[in-house]
């Protein structure tokens, strides 16, 4: 992206033409690297799936690295698109000039990995994108997952109100993530009607099943904790008798 200038800094037709050529060259380079980017995403998702249970720290390292690479890729795609749009809006280049840089294949962001190829590769990329979404959400849910694994309801009456407040805070966090979990479910349903082969469907189903088990543990934990604490509070609360 070095050498690209803002549209208002382009003063001659020669500079505009040079800008268009640079945009085209940058796009071509991204197109050449796109298959490598897709493969990296696929391998990273598979590695995270293998490491999640046995080595959470290593899985997180892979997730963070992939997130960083994905963000850089998307930023490059967005900057190319923005430079092209700015050129057209400025009137210094027409749509045909800028579109010439897109005449071969569109450069695709990480959110559109499934739109650039046909057949099996396209279907694989649909699954890869789904696995990437699961990986990202699983990473963000880790604090809740860790809390659900270590949290124990205290039987001390003086702790009831404090623990109720903690559980209510966690419940708010869970409610905030419910919409994203529902979107994952919807995305999986779309995969089921996308004519994937058995191997592709198994990858998607297995990943979602593992994710769903973790999410269910979080929801079950908060539900059970709230029920116990609500019962303790109803039976006396902080000023009542200590629960057995």
Structure in words:
- Residues 9-36, 167-194 form a coiled coil.
- Residues 100-119 are annotated as: Disordered.
- Keywords: Coiled coil.
- The chain has 2 domains: 1-113; 141-244.
- It is built from 7 helices and no strands.
- By secondary structure, the chain is mainly α.
- The longest helix is centred in the N-terminal third of the chain and has 39 residues, at 13-51.
- The chain has helices at 13-51, 56-90, 95-100, 119-140, 142-150, 160-192, 198-234.
Topology diagram in text:
Blueprint: H1 13-51, H2 56-90, H3 95-100, H4 119-140, H5 142-150, H6 160-192, H7 198-234
Query: Taking all residues together, what is the mean pLDDT?
Result: 74
| Shape summary | elongated
User: Beta-strand level of the residues, as a percent range?
Assistant: under 5%
* Count of helical stretches: 7
Determine the structural class based on helices, strands and strand pairing: mainly alpha
Largest sheet: none
What attributes characterize this protein structure?
244 residues; mainly alpha; 2 domains; elongated; disordered C terminus
Put the structure in a nutshell.
Residues 9-36, 167-194 form a coiled coil. This protein has 244 residues and is mostly helical. The chain is built from seven helices and no strands.
